[in-house]
């Protein structure tokens, strides 16, 4: 069996008994029932995912997948494609937004080249998993072959399997790829059938004229490729991206290994959508970090049935929102593990 199929068949639903036990444990803490709101949901779900009522949050890793996009030739981004490579070096030097915010929550950033159009040689610190030097222009034909899409999915799966072996407790997704809001919008349009104009936005900050062009390019790409909405691999290969595939694989791999996975913004959520089309059970293993400024993001989150943890008007990507949300999820887990019970503290219980 292929690694992808093996991973898909390993994913199990969460144990309702464990969810109930975690909530019971939270209900014995010195607070009115439910008074810690969504922190209780984070703790309950994290415990059930990790299969423990005392789950660790010690090792936190954010994978930032970098890749290029042929569709950039159509003028869909405010920045030149060289920025993808330049930002990879910035991540490795620790100077990017995600480095700062990951440090803030004591998470490690691991940078993965899954498809950058650049020869990095043996750059220290870079996880070299290049599948291709970027995708092809999906306005003219398929972005990838099915084989390339599977290879990139399996990069993500292997990283998740490595996390299991390394005792990583919580994973965050992130990405860097000039042009990648275009395939992300194409994916939600293809899967949902919504008009492209409803799900397409300004990415790095394009003007009105470029936005109209971006919408036209995506419409053309969907018309040329006719991705089958019932075949996630077809959608991913025809109008997706290599980093989006890596993220989808990472999410599938985390679900298969029972590792909670925190999904960043618009592009990461496109990866989560593909993962959930492959196996809807992955929805139980993911946390939606935040609500991105990109207008199509809420349709993605609705499809996943996921409520975003934060709404900070972020639109940077990289894993920045995931880093911040990891801090709050960890806070919830600390409540489960560290807060005193009514009995321990000698506090009188109310009526419930
Ligand atoms: O995460 C988000 O919601 C998000 C929203 C807009 C832009 N981005 C980042 O900006 C880049 C893509 O923007 P664009 O305009 O080049 O498609 C890519 O590197 C993403 O990390 C990220
Ligand atoms: C500078 C810059 C940093 C980024 N990080 C993620 N996407 C980005 C896009 C740009 C343009």
UniProtKB/TrEMBL annotation:
Alphabetized Pfam families for the sequence: DBI_PRT (PF02277)
Cited InterPro entries: Nict_dMeBzImd_PRibTrfase (IPR003200), Nict_dMeBzImd_PRibTrfase_bact (IPR017846), Nict_dMeBzImd_PRibTrfase_N (IPR023195), Nict_dMeBzImd_PRibTrfase_sf (IPR036087)
Protein EC: 2.4.2.21
Family label: Belongs to the CobT family.
Keyword terms of this UniProt record: Cobalamin biosynthesis, Glycosyltransferase, Transferase
Any one GO MF annotation of this record: glycosyltransferase activity
UniProt keyword Glycosyltransferase present: yes
Catalytic residues as annotated in Swiss-Prot or TrEMBL: 318 (proton acceptor)
Pathway in which this enzyme or protein is active: Nucleoside biosynthesis; alpha-ribazole biosynthesis; alpha-ribazole from 5,6-dimethylbenzimidazole: step 1/2
Organism expressing this protein natively: Geotalea uraniireducens
PANTHER family found in the cross-reference section: NICOTINATE-NUCLEOTIDE--DIMETHYLBENZIMIDAZOLE PHOSPHORIBOSYLTRANSFERASE (PTHR43463:SF1)
Protein name: Nicotinate-nucleotide--dimethylbenzimidazole phosphoribosyltransferase
Catalytic reactions of this protein: 5,6-dimethylbenzimidazole + nicotinate beta-D-ribonucleotide = alpha-ribazole 5'-phosphate + nicotinate + H(+)
Described function: Catalyzes the synthesis of alpha-ribazole-5'-phosphate from nicotinate mononucleotide (NAMN) and 5,6-dimethylbenzimidazole (DMB).
Enzyme class: transferase
SUPFAM superfamilies in alphabetical order: Nicotinate mononucleotide:5,6-dimethylbenzimidazole phosphoribosyltransferase (CobT) (SSF52733)
